[in-house]
Amino acid sequence: MTEQTATISTGTPAGLGFRKGRDRVVEAFLLLAALVAVFTTIAIVIVLVAESLPFFKVVPLREFLTDTMWIPLFAEPRYGVLPLVAGTLVTTLVALAVAIPAGTIIAIYLSEFAPYRLRETIKPALELLGAVPTVVYGYFALMIVTPLLQKLIPGLPGFNMLSAGLVIGIMIIPYVASVSEDAMRAVPNYMREGSYAMGATRFQTATRVVVPGALSGIAAAYILGISRAVGETMVVAIAAGLQPNLTWDPTEPAATITAFIVQVSLGDLPHDSIGYQSIFAVGLVLMLMTLVFNIAGFSLTRKFRETY
Amino acid sequence: MHAATADAALQQIRADVNRRKIFDKIFVMVGLLIMFSALLVLVVLFLDLVQDGAPRLNWDFLNSFPSRKAERAGILSAWVGTSLIMLTTAAVSMPVGVAAAIYLEEYAPKNWMTAIIEINVTNLAGVPSIIYGLLALGLFVYQFNLGQSIAAAGLTLSLLILPIVIVATREALRAVPRAIREAAYALGATRWEVTAHHVLPYSTGGILTGMIIGLSRAIGETAPLITIGALSFIAFLPESPFKGEFPFFSFAWLKEAFTAMPIQMFNWVSRPDPAFQVNAAAAGAILLGMTLLMNGVAIYIRYRFRKRINW
Amino acid sequence: MQPGTSTQENPARPVPTHAVEGRLTTPRPSVEVGKRSTGDEQSLVIKSRAEGLSFYYGNVRALKDLNIEIREKRVTALIGPSGCGKTTFLRCFNRMHDLTPGTRYEGRIMLYPDSLDLVGRGVDAIEVRMRIGMVFQKPNPFPKSIFENVAYGLKVRGVRSNARIEEQVEQALRRAAIWDEVKDRLDNSGLSLSGGQQQRLCIARALATNPEILLFDEPTSALDPIATARIEELIDELRDQVTVIIVTHNMQQAARVSDYTAFMYLGELIEFDNTSKLFTNPSQKATEDYITGRYG
Question: Chain B partners of A33 at a C-beta cutoff of 8 Å?
């Protein structure tokens, strides 16, 4: 072997040193990029807490959590967050009443009944349903759903939580369906085969074997759906009205936490006014709510992934 | 067994099975009904927007600024704003997202730090978009002093779609078989060389898909932009990024006030005057059309890409 | 371990034998021992030596105190039943285990003439892999052109001159006995070749960088008999040019192709000898049981 070829075997020592050095530098940059996710979370926490601290210095926590009126911009302001929370919860419940049954049924159908080609065409189509901009859904709620409902429910006000809730429900159907379907598909085939071998029909197998087997994943889907509904902004801002209203009646207008933040942002509040700080305070509440749901949802997801 | 009893038993079994099968059939019908109703909503929505917005769906609409008079109000500043914001968002979220995904897939050791990063990425995917708006308001607008500008808007949306880009990129990287990496390592390549020469080139399709889906999400986001102070009555265009003289590209537009398509639509929808609803519908049709188009392209790329390399 | 020796010290080692009393004659193993070297090998150069090598996956000790000598420019085969550690051992030579977290080496694998410890803590894995090449069980050409596949190793080593690269690529493809089949379609994708051709392409790829040792990890187990025969021919031709270590499931292949054979079982080296001796007159009962097919 010639000396030339011997060199090829290892390259030049300088070359190797350069390549290794480059590797290290690149790794540092990549790590930095990955840490952006951590920084973002930290930043969210810091901003929310820091900007709402002044608010909580003025408004005692007890009043915040128990007062029944939210009129922070009035001459005699009241800072009870309950109306906003109620608005959020009512719209979410309406949304779930739509999304949970529909999403689950669709998931069962796609996972256990649908022929392969149908499933492969429908799934992207459902993805599209979930990709519609929320402001467009808001328009849909206000201009199409509300008039429709007004025909069914005479006396329904132009702004109401029912319309908004229904549309939010439609909006999160794809999400609930897809996570549930993933959970059901993860149930191993031998369990289904055991059921079929005993003479069960598809429906029986689906409801008695697959769904119970995928329960934690399906629960995760529901919980993550709740989290999405709670955080939804534009549909409620457009169709449910912006008037805080402590009520459990979905036919009334009300404001959610998110709608309130929008309302304030549309206005022109100086940086250190209590109105400005109040959006961070309610934002903090919203963040905590979704955090609880997300943690619950993701730990359930991990649980069902580990089981299989 | 006696022939007659055997026969009767068989009949009984048959009847039972048929009865149970009815549930099957009912369920299939219900399932199909619900599925197609949901999809029907999409169709109805799009058609309604086009129909309601038809009077204003013309070049004039695309070329005019907002105005107090509905017939004259257009989305020029809005779609220019959206384009510039999307440019910024892509420029930031693409490198950061892909880099983060590469780190997590190819470099990260299995330790607590990696676990924390992954938990954060998953968590951020579930944070409501308006919280990103609040974050941006406190951080970008005030703390970093970017003001209510296109730069702030672009950065906000980048953070919002970062989890989407990261997850999609990771999946694309994962699809490259281990055998290819091993072959490259066995030839003496360093980790970065394996990634850059082999893993990345073979996963571009998936990465591109993730990027497009992320942008299609960003295009429709309204809440965070409102929060950081999007205006909806901008009657001027920001300075163009492209100049006629050296250096041919300027960054002045980043500092300007902004509006965007979803903002404009929201503004019009909120007005009682029905004439503005027509505008809103037209803007909505365009917005929805763009979103569907982008998603369709992404789905197509993903489909084609899956067929291209048969490992 | 020197050829001609084997582990004798451990009678308590569990060695399954189906053979009991009643066995009259030891049936001769039905392997054809090729024209392998037989006797005066003590004077040959040692290329590498494993000294007390152990390997751990986490807490599991997968390789137990291996001592073996690899002769330069000869073919050494590692045989043994599934799970005996032969592939694990092979992968120590080029530090592929570094890619798996939680693994640990103990002992040394010395590379001569510079007396480099391949698994030494201070020794860079990349450097090791630049000197030791590997061909995998399932052919894994890159989804690039045939030319690019073979040239990759050179590019990574900083060879810039196109003329040099072309020259080395041709040489490698010739050595891998595939040049005539692909010389007109060097720009075609590596994946467009048949399985056997892909494997020869992978061999060319590994040869292009002139490795000091070439490792083969069951290179023909995924190939049909004709392709297998061609690869065995190729390995035969590589004798006297490259030091080869080959792991194989197929005893007959080991007998056909190698000069020395090591028989491993449960992570230990049972016997190591000239191939002809090991297959016709093994010293250890366990070896004999294996090659006569008493257990697989």
Answer: 95-97, 99-100, 103
* Interface residue B298 vs chain C (CB under 8 A): no
Neighbours of chain C (3+ CB pairs under 8 A): A, B
Helices (H), B126-149: 129-136
Tell me, what's the ipTM? 0.89
| C92/C57 Cα distance (integer angstroms) | 12
Domain ranges of chain C: 44-291
| CA A131, chain centre distance (Å) | 13
The tokens of C224 are what? 């049909």
B125-176 residue pLDDT tens: 989 999 999 999 988 888 888 778 888 999 999 999 999 999 999 999 998 9
Interval A15-68: pLDDT, tens: 788 888 999 999 999 999 999 999 999 999 999 999 999 999 988 888 888 888
Burial of residue C168 (CB within 10 Å: 0-12, 13-18, 19+) is: buried
* pTM of the predicted protein model: 0.85
Contact check, Cβ <8 Å, C209/A6: no
Report the chain A residue with the minimal C-alpha distance to residue B121. Answer: A37
C 112-171 residues with CB < 8 A to B: 126-127, 129-131, 133-134, 136, 138, 140-143, 152-153, 156-157
Q: Tell me the C-alpha distance between A148 and A143, whole Å.
A: 9
- The CATH number of domain A70-307, selected from 3.90.1150.10, 1.10.8.60, 1.10.3720.10, 3.30.310.70: 1.10.3720.10
- Domains parsed from chain B with CATH numbers: 57-308 (1.10.3720.10)
Q: The domain C44-291: what is its CATH number?
A: 3.40.50.300
